[in-house]
Structure formats: C-alpha cells, structure tokens
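Protocol step 6 of 9: fold each sequence in the batch and record its structure tokens directly after the sequence line. For illustration, a two-sequence batch is reproduced in full.

Sequence one:
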Amino acid sequence: MDEFIKVAKKSEIAEGQMKEYRISGKTVAIANIAGEFLAFDGICTHAHCALAGGYLDGYTLTCYCHGAQFDIKSGSVLAPPAPEPVSVYEVKLDDSDILLKI
C-alpha cells in the first residue's frame, strides 16, 4: 500500500507507552517516545510474542517473552534471541491523528 492510513489519535498513546493495532492484516505497534511516534511490527521475530507488551527504554524495546531487544527506530536487533529485525513504518502526524504507510 502506498498511501497513509489513519490509525489512531495521538492522545491514545501516552508518552513512554505503546499500543497495538491490526492494519491491513498486520499487527503493528506504535510507540510514543517524548512525543515522537514510531511504528513497527508488533510481533517478535523470535517467539511471536506481542511486542506492545514489552518494555521501552528510550528507543530500545525488550520483548517480555525471552528478552530479545530491538531498536524501534531502525527495527534492528540489539540483543538475541530474535533472529531478524522487525519492519518499521513511516509515520505522519496530521493534527491529532497518527497516520501510517504500511
């Protein structure tokens, strides 16, 4: 898909928190890091756990299942056991709305 889709309101995701959404058949998580909204695959590449249930420390997300860590800005794996990075998605803000390109 080459267009932006309205997914959420900025007010739905508190600073330092994440929320999971189902978009176009995908599970996507959106995080709010100091007012910057980042979107990425919502499922861990290791054991398929929901990443929105994990722990954020800045841009580092730790999966609650087995401790795999990802950089949510780039999607790269920072610590095993995740074998592959997660995809990240372009975010656009439109007034109070969060839009994603999936």
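Sequence two, same batch, same settings:
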Amino acid sequence: MDWGTLFALASTAVLVPWIALVVGPRGPKTHALVFYLGIGLLSLAYAVGLLGLLIGNGGLGEGDFSSIEGVRALFASDAGVTVGWLHYLAFDLFVGQWIAKDADHKMVSRIAQAPILVLTLLAGPLGLFVWMVVRERRARAMAGLKLRG
C-alpha cells in the first residue's frame, strides 16, 4: 500500500469511531470499538509506518526534531506526512474518548459534548482546551454539591 492510500484510508476510517463517540451509545462496546479498533489500529499503523521510515529512511533525508528545518524535512515526504497524520489521528481520538468519558461522568449532556468532540476531531488541542474550560466549571459545581450533600 502506498502512503497516499494509507493517508486516505486512515482519514476515512477514523470517522467511524468519531461518529460512534458523538452519536452512538456510550457503553462498554462503543468504548472498546473506539479504543481498540480506532486508537489501537491507528497507533499500530503509526508504529509500523515510523519503523519503516526509521529503517528505510523513507526519503526523510536529514530530518530530525532538533530544529524547525529538521522537522520540515521530516514532513517533506508523503511518508513523513502520513506518519505524522496517523499520530494526530490517534492522539486526537484518544483525547476525544477521554473527553466523552469524563463528560459522561460529570453528567454533561450529549448535546453539549457533540460540538466539543467535533472541535477535537478538527483541531485537537482547541477542543481539549474548550473541554478543560467547561470541565472546570462542572467539576467545581460537582465538588460544591458533594461538600454540601
């Protein structure tokens, strides 16, 4: 499979666990689907791709993580972009699942969760930041209830 096909396949396949998180039932089966078939397979694809790049250098040239030029070189190939994209997809989905579980625990409605989860899919750290702001208010409110109750 070439890098472009892997990129397209991962970009499309990741929508299944995201849709399950946003609109599906939140039981153990859904969380297992997201965790193992979503995050797990993306992480495996990332690990295999990264190993392939490191062993074969995959056209990475002189890329490294010590400078902006080195990172630019890492992403200057289809292989580097695809492996980086797999990294983003896996981590954003992991964060999305954590947000969904945490929001359920804090009794945040699914309607309020949906835009935060979509934002996490589209712009991971921004979605996480929004959840942290929402979560803080809910956590303080719940702590007040527990102290009084």
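Proceed to step 7 once all outputs are recorded. Observation for sequence two: The longest helix spans residues 28-56.
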